[in-house]
Every structure is written in structure tokens, then in C-alpha cells.
Amino acid sequence: MNKQITLTINGEARAVEVGPTDILLDVLREKLGIKSPKIGCERGDCGACTVLLDGKSVRSCLILAIEADGHKITTLEGLSRNGLTPLQESFLKHSSFQCGFCAPGIVLSATELLAKHPHPSEEEIKESISGNLCRCTGYKPIIEAIAAVSNARRKSV
Ligand code: FES
Ligand code: FES
Q1: How far apart are the CA of 73 and the centre of ligand 1, in A?
Q2: Ligand nearest 26 Cα, by number?
Q3: Ligand 2 atom 4: the closest Cα is on which residue?
Q4: What single DSSP character describes residue 8?
Q5: What are phi and psi of 58, to 5 degrees?
């Protein structure tokens, strides 16, 4: 039986009717028009569908929409409402992505990391994006861009 749930998406409360087996990724994309979470493996392996749920990165292909009822979701669309974040600027500067399919998930995973650890080690950076597959870049320009945000923060204090 369908149920109406409310998701606070990028700061805006959105009511949506979902079925008991509807996946959060599908509801975001098909019912709410939020297209940045990508459909990849749909089994938790690639991280293309990553969103932040109450600030924590999760794979939206593994979560039922009803489990997210009442929770806050941040997607790439919500990060850049007031312009690109320093992290997004850094990814651009370092030409971190090629096809860009992995980018929304990696931006969100790295956003979570930098919110928790302003100055992460290289190991922590690698760990934070270990669930996000990128077929194009070899990860080096991605890791460099995240580290550059940390370094810039050090210089500014
Ligand atoms: Fe969700 Fe791959 S589509 S982890
Ligand atoms: Fe193509 Fe990462 S830039 S998958």
C-alpha cells in the first residue's frame, strides 16, 4: 500500500507518495526530478547513487524511500545553491573528472569527509572515496583536489 512520506531535500520539505518497495534512488530521480544521483550498479558497489542522509553518505540504491521518511537528504543540486563550494572549485581546478558519471557521488563523499575532518590524511581521503568507483581518472586528480581544500584551509588560519 502506498504511503505519503516527507523528505527534506536540499533544505526543502517535499511530500511524495511511495510504495513499500520503492527505492530512494528511483523516488529521487523519477518522482522528485532530482537527477544528480546516478543509476549505476544498483547493488551498492559503485557509489554513483550516493547522497547525504542527515549528513552521512549513503547509497540511495540500497535504501527504501520509506526508510528516509522525515530525514534530511542532500544531493549535488543542494551543494551549489549559493555558488560552487570550495571543494567543487578545487575539483574543477584540478580537472578531476572526465565523463563525470562518478562526480556527484564523489563530491558528496568528500563533502562529508571535509565536514568531519577539516585536514584529512591521504589515507583518510582515499578511504572516504573508496566506495565511489571512477573508471576514467585513476583517482589522482580527485585525491589532489580534496587535499588542496585542506591545504588552503591551513593557510587561511
Ligand atoms: Fe548505487 Fe551503484 S547505483 S551503489
Ligand atoms: Fe568518468 Fe569518474 S570521471 S567515471
Answers
A1: 16
A2: 1
A3: 134
A4: E
A5: -140, 160
CA-97 nearest atom, ligand 2: 3
Is 9 in a helix, a strand, or coil?
strand
Quote the CA–CA distance of 4 and 148 in Å, as a whole number.
Answer: 43
Rg (CA), the chain: 16
Domains of the chain: 3-78 (3.10.20.30), 86-156 (1.10.150.120)
Per-residue HEC secondary structure of 17-80 comes to EECCCCEHHHHHHHHCCCCCCCCCCCCCCCCCCEEEECCEEEEHHHCEHHHHCCCEEECHHHHC
Q: How confident is the model at residue 153 (pLDDT cuts 50, 70, 90)?
A: confident
Q: Which ligand is nearest to the CA of 131?
A: 1
Choose the residue to mutate in 42, 130, 134, 135 for probing ligand 1, maximizing ligand atoms within 8 Å of C-beta: 42
Nearest ligand to residue 63 Cα: 1
* Ligand 2, atom nearest to 98 Cα: 3
* Average pLDDT value for residue range 112-118: 96
The reply to whether the predicted model has a pTM over 0.85 is yes
Instruction: Tell how far the Cα of 101 is from the centroid of ligand 2, in angstroms.
Output: 5
Q: Ligand 2 mean position to 30 CA, how many Å?
A: 23
Q: 120 or 80, which is more confident?
A: 120
